[in-house]
Amino acid sequence: MRRQAREHARPTILLVGSPNVGKSVLFHKLTGRYVTVSNYPGTTVEVARGLMRYRGREFVIIDSPGMYSLTPITDEERVARRILLRDRPDLVVHVIDAKNLARMLPLTAQLMEAGAPVMVVLNMMDELESAGVCIEIDALARQLGAPVLPTVGLSGQGVDALKELIYERFANADLPRRD
Question: For the whole model, what pTM was predicted?
Answer without folding.
Answer: 0.87
